[in-house]
């Protein structure tokens, strides 16, 4: 997180004199050994040698490097040491792969780690270029300027490449408009090969590209990753690349082929416990607040906040440095005394709302997306992809298509049987609170609960109509939770006929007996009886509907215990280790119950 930036040394501030004049995006560029004025924006010449930039002014992003202007911060000293250590070990390993890919969910601190290692490697002379993508930041979000900007930085870091690159551009000024493969070869790999062939460096050079997912051209980024991994597998150069990104689908695809797997070292940020580091960050920042505001904080003795309060904030952050950082910003925004803001922060839930709006708002028009998202948020147990597909009557591929667009805020497993997880529980809170999400994604949670209850009943009506059926995560979920979803719903009058028909189909068919048997087999009878009683108390029409099929309500609730005496269950597991186990039941028929006075 925040820390003091290193002062820029002479190596970063070339003392040269030059005079250039031209245009850049409609503004005049005039320089006389000082600052570069672009329209109304001034770029200081302590970072970029604009004489070199005059070769291709329209294809260089001056503030894209780790030294660029804008809000940039590395990790607090002493934090993220485990993950940084793994990246440094990759860099120093003589037999290491040419590419390291640091991946992680949104808000976990990937850019802070990139900033930290970039500063360190700039200090030891191994960093030759860096590009930090940032969505909505002009050139920093454009792929078209990536390779040319990296090439420009290389001419500054390795002066021997300058005449090679300048000659290539003079001979063929169209290079910045050529394919990714040709740009990479002519502006980066070729010049480095020429220079290092005669003078091999003691350590490999490093190029850092942060936040691939922030690039506005997904197709170009996908192609670039494929071209880079292919080139890295064939070109033996003293060059390594550190790439970072959220788990966006186009990025995942690019890293999934055999060539990428052979040339890339993967580092998953969520594999590292960040609780200690977030606690250290919060303690550091809060101690600064206490020192800098003696009048506001008089009467408050350290430690502030208390250990319990710090632990509560760490729990809320749940591994997300962005949440911890936003929380500190909230407390120190000056709108109220810090102690009062801390009390508010302990119940704060809006820290990640802008991020959620950004990710969800970028999802294309997928007809079933909202259904998948709503079901994922409202189910009482995190479902697998298969469970979502079963409940919604969708193909597994359709469910994956919807989920892949929000992989930066959820965790989509590698198989169809493992539960889909949320990166942070605040996502559910955000989506179910209309005042925060503006009802853009889940219009009415209570109405959605009704739909889920109906979906569960329909699933059982479809699946429980035969003596042999699959007992899987979907069936186990529906038998346990359909009553709860109906209890949490607010049923509109216009949809009652549909629910009447669905419930009638259920209670008048063999599906109800199967449901009852499964409840007994899975020891769910007591809790389900309680839910049914509450449901009947809430909805008179449910009582009326049940009475239309039974002389009294005992045959509906009572069989949960009566069935246990006559249930014959023989488990026949057909496939070990899978989500699905198939069972055969001797079903207790309604007629048999009636003969016993039920």
TrEMBL record:
Nephrocystin 3-like N-terminal domain boundaries: 87-246
Repeat in keyword set: yes
Keyword Repeat assigned: yes
InterPro entries for the chain: NPHP3-like_N, P-loop_NTPase
Annotated SUPFAM superfamilies: P-loop containing nucleoside triphosphate hydrolases
Keywords in alphabetical order: Repeat
Protein name: Nephrocystin 3-like N-terminal domain-containing protein
Organism listed in the record: Athelia psychrophila
Source lineage: Eukaryota, Fungi, Dikarya, Basidiomycota, Agaricomycotina
């Amino acid at each position: 997180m925040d820390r003091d930036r290193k002062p820029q040394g002479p190596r970063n501030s070339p003392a040269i004199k030059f005079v250039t004049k031209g245009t850049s995006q409609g503004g005049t560029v005039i320089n006389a050994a000082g600052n570069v004025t672009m329209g109304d924006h001034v770029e200081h010449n302590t970072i970029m040698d604009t004489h070199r930039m005059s070769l291709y002014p329209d294809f260089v992003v001056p503030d894209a490097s780790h030294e660029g202007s804008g809000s940039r911060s590395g990790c607090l000293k002493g934090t993220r040491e485990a993950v940084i250590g793994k990246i440094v070990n990759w860099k120093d390993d003589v037999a290491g792969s040419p590419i390291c890919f640091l991946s992680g969910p949104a808000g976990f601190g990937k850019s802070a780690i990139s900033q930290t290692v970039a500063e360190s490697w700039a200090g030891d002379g191994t960093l030759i270029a860096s590009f930090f993508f940032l969505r909505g930041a002009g050139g920093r979000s454009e792929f078209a300027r990536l390779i040319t900007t990296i090439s420009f930085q290389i001419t500054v870091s390795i002066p021997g490449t300058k005449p090679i690159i300048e000659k290539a551009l003079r001979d063929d000024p169209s290079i910045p408009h050529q394919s990714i493969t040709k740009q990479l070869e002519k502006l980066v790999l070729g010049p480095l090969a020429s220079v290092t062939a005669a003078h091999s460096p003691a350590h490999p050079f490093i190029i850092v590209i942060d936040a691939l997912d922030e690039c506005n051209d997904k197709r170009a980024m996908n192609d670039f990753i494929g071209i880079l991994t292919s080139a890295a597998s064939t070109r033996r150069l003293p060059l390594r690349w550190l790439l970072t990104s959220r788990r966006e689908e186009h990025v995942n695809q690019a890293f999934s082929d055999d060539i990428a797997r052979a040339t890339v070292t993967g580092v998953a940020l969520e594999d590292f416990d960040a609780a200690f580091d977030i606690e250290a960050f919060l303690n550091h920042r809060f101690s600064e607040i206490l020192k800098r505001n003696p009048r506001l904080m008089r009467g408050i003795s350290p430690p502030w906040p208390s250990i319990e309060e710090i632990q509560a904030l760490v729990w809320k952050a749940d591994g997300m440095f962005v949440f911890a950082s936003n929380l500190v910003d909230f407390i120190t925004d000056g709108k109220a005394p810090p102690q009062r803001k801390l009390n508010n922060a302990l119940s704060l839930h809006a820290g990640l709302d802008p991020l959620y709006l950004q990710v969800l708002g970028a999802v294309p028009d997928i007809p079933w997306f909202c259904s998948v998202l709503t079901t994922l948020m409202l189910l009482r147990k995190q479902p697998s992809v298969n469970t979502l597909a079963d409940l919604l009557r969708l193909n597994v591929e359709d469910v994956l298509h919807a989920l892949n667009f929000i992989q930066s805020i959820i965790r989509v497993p590698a198989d169809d049987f493992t539960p889909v997880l949320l990166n942070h529980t605040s996502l559910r809170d955000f989506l179910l609170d209309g005042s925060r999400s503006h009802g853009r994604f889940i219009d009415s949670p209570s109405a959605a609960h009704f739909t889920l209850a109906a979906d569960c009943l329909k699933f059982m009506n479809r699946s429980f109509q035969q003596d042999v059926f699959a007992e899987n995560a979907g069936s186990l979920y529906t038998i346990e939770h359909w009553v709860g979803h109906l209890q949490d719903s607010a049923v509109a009058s216009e949809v009652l006929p549909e629910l009447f028909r669905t419930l009638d189909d259920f209670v008048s068919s063999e599906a109800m007996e199967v449901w009852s048997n499964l409840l007994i087999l899975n020891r769910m009878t007591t809790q389900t009886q309680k839910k049914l009683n509450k449901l009947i108390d809430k909805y008179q029409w449910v009582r009326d509907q049940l009475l239309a099929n039974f002389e009294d309500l005992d045959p509906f609730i009572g069989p949960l215990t009566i069935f246990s005496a006559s249930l014959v269950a023989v488990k026949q597991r057909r496939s070990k280790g899978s989500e699905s186990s198939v069972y055969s039941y001797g079903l207790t028929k309604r007629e048999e119950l009636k003969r016993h006075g039920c």
